[in-house]
Amino acid sequence: MRLKTFDWKIFIVLAISVANFLASYYLNTNMIIDERTYAVQSYYFYRDRTLPEIYPLLSILTVGPLTLFGVEKQAFLTVPFVATLLTVALTYHLSKKQFGSKARGLLASTLVACNPVVIWLSAKHMTENLFALFLVLTFLMIIGKDVTYRQAFFAGTFSFLAYLCRYPGLLLFPVITIWLIQKKARLRVFLAYLFPVTFVVMYWAVNWFVFRRPLTTETYSFGTLLAKSGTINLNLSLPLLGNMAYKVTAAFILVFGYAAIFLLPQARKMKLANPVALFTIAYIVVHLGYYTLLSLSWSFAWSIDHVARYLVPISPLVMSLSSFTPRVHRFNYVLLLLLCFAGIVMGLYLTNYSNMHSQVPISWEDFIKDISGLLERIQ
Fold first, then answer.
1. H/E segment holding residue 298
2. What are the distances in angstroms from CA 61 to CA 130, 180, 234, 328?
3. How many angstroms separate the CA atoms of 48 and 54, rounded?
4. Hey, is 55 helix, strand or coil?
5. What is the 8-class DSSP label of residue 302?
6. Cβ count within 10 A of residue 176
7. How far apart are CA 108 and CA 110, in angstroms?
8. What is the model's pTM?
9. What single string gives the DSSP state of each residue in 106-165?
């Protein structure tokens, strides 16, 4: 990032993000179920290099903090924290690259720093914030008038790394390929972007060799659809459909509602020629489809936070499209301050709520004690 294009006010935004993380870190005393699954996987990869079976990149990157800090809470939360900070900083650059405005860049990064679900997950050993980082990095490479083959190759590589965070990252390849076709990019740019698809194939081959199935994460995720009855049942009762609609709406409000006044003016102007908008729409459609099948198959609407976790990885992309509204230009900064304060309060509330209402709760202290005891017995 060139210094002449950099606004030093971003450090204020980063300081806010650090403060939000610290508050969430100390409030975060209990682990949620998925978090424990990923933490155990990270521990085994650290201990004996057992290949992570699901969402592997988080576990691979956590080896460094585990080596540095030992088997401690801060080791498991270092990667999500660093990913959150980098995402906040790079969202500024993504917005500025699209619209050429430092003010809009600072607005976008501030909204990401104060996103309630981002705050909650910044202190969780979860994959969403890391996934968000690679989504931002991918689009940073291709936004602009001309895409070089080097930028295309890095975009493809970041798309692959996004896939290693969460399997919907694979959507990047067809969406960006369609956008490159619309842009009439040169052939070598296409080839450079699609070359990292070979990394995906190599990853599948390793999975086949180690686990006897190539799509390990997808099997884990889609297996949930069949976990209740062994088949997909479509229960189309009106109460269920109404509850699903309520929870999806609540999740959208939770992830984007605090920023709506800065997003709605741009939503009308946005076109699918913008790759960020194109990917966002494809991503939402796929996840709403999965949530619908999941809820219908289980005959109950899965939770609001479940849907919010689907949506939060694209929140930096969406916030990069934000702008101040000219109708209330005198009050824009006051509104930003109030809405960001509301986002922070909600984020800390989510952290505390997950402590009290997590299924099969286990504290970080007990988790570390149990897993450290296992290490001592093995040694």
1. helix 275-298
2. 10, 31, 39, 44
3. 17
4. coil
5. P
6. 27
7. 5
8. 0.94
9. HHHHHHHHT-HHHHHHHTSS-SHHHHHHHHHHHHHHH-SS---HHHHHHHHHHHHHHHHH
- Residues 158-174 have pLDDT tens digits of 999 999 999 999 999 99
Give the CA distances from residue 363 to residues 74, 130, 354, in Å, rounded to whole numbers and listed in that order: 14, 23, 12
CB atoms within 10 A of CB 163: 26
- Contact indicator for 204, 214 with CB cutoff of 8 Å: yes
DSSP H helical ranges for 212-274: 216-226, 238-256, 260-267
What is the phi/psi pair of residue 203, to 5°? -65, -45
| pLDDT digit string, tens, across residues 66-81 | 999 999 999 999 999 9
Which secondary-structure segment (H or E) carries 282? Answer: helix 275-298
Both tokens assigned to 287: 């996840």
Question: What DSSP designation does 274 have?
Answer: S
Domain edges within the chain = 3-211+227-373
Q: Are 133 and 80 in contact (CB under 8 A)?
A: no
Dihedral sign computed on CA atoms, order 216, 218, 221, 227: negative
DSSP H or E segment with residue 362: strand 362-363
Report the half-sphere exposure of 252 (CA within 13 A, side-chain side).
Answer: 10
Supply the mean pLDDT for the chain.
Answer: 90
How much is the pLDDT for 192? 96
Q: What is the 3-state secondary structure (H, E, C) of 306-345?
A: HHHHHHHHHHHHHHCCCCCCHHHHHHHHHHHHHHHHHHHH
Amino acid (one-letter) located at 282? A
d(CA 284, CA 288): 6
Residue matched to tokens 């290949």? 51
